[in-house]
């Protein structure tokens, strides 16, 4: 069914018969979900295997009709990510896809030259990694450690690039599309100087991507070792969070027993009271760096032509930054107070 549409990957010149006549066939989708995950997807995501390709085709048709110059990949597997993230609601999946491209187009500091080798220093620092074992719900645990970042070495946008590529790699797996992920953020040693880099402008961008601009289900955010200053950091974040997401934040402080109620010790490293050995970042780094060619291929399909992209979907970075100036002044005062 996926080959029934005449719409190819769109570009400014797409649409004429000569452009589409010799378009290569799209990769045929083959489901890799286990029977249990097929059942879970049906119950939680409203995904019906017998209608799956019909639903993908419906989304593809909507893209071709409503956003012919979006410049997106239209393969079954790619579009399926957005349908699953929005429980097969066509309209919401389409909006998520548009937001995905809008985010990439409107923040060039993050999305230009986005590939694993470009963020090697961040990976080697251990700022972000993925634990080797999934939790009992089948969810990967993304571990973020801000204390590993030195602002004098590279800007905060490099950390955001590393997190984004990590999510892009994880979402390639259908199991992750269904189960979602869990975040474990260790704020041990976060100083005032580091916190000041995460102002309202950056916070709004990051939260916008995670909530409305990326096809992944974040099921829980576990914060540990948060200092007093985290009250100021959370004050920056909270206004941009939807209630559903805000309710998935769990602050554990230094109480590892509290953390273990959400993430079992058997999959945690020794640093967090677990029994899975020392935290090893090398395996994830090697996996991500080995995916360089995959990213170059995938992202080459997502080039957004400046002259054709719907400008009403983009928000000027300068305008956003100006809007955040007053808020930033207030937040800085609060950070100093908490510190």
Automatic annotation (TrEMBL):
GO molecular function: phosphatidylinositol bisphosphate binding
UniProt-listed InterPro entries: CRAL-TRIO_dom, CRAL-TRIO_dom_sf, CRAL/TRIO_N_dom, CRAL/TRIO_N_dom_sf
Start and end residues of each stretch annotated as Disordered: 1-24
Pfam families found in the cross-reference section: CRAL_TRIO, CRAL_TRIO_N
Composition bias type Polar residues, residue spans: 8-19
GO CC, alphabetical: membrane
CRAL-TRIO domain boundaries: 115-280
Domain of life of the native organism: Eukaryota
The protein's name in its UniProt record: TTPAL protein
Organism of origin: Semnornis frantzii
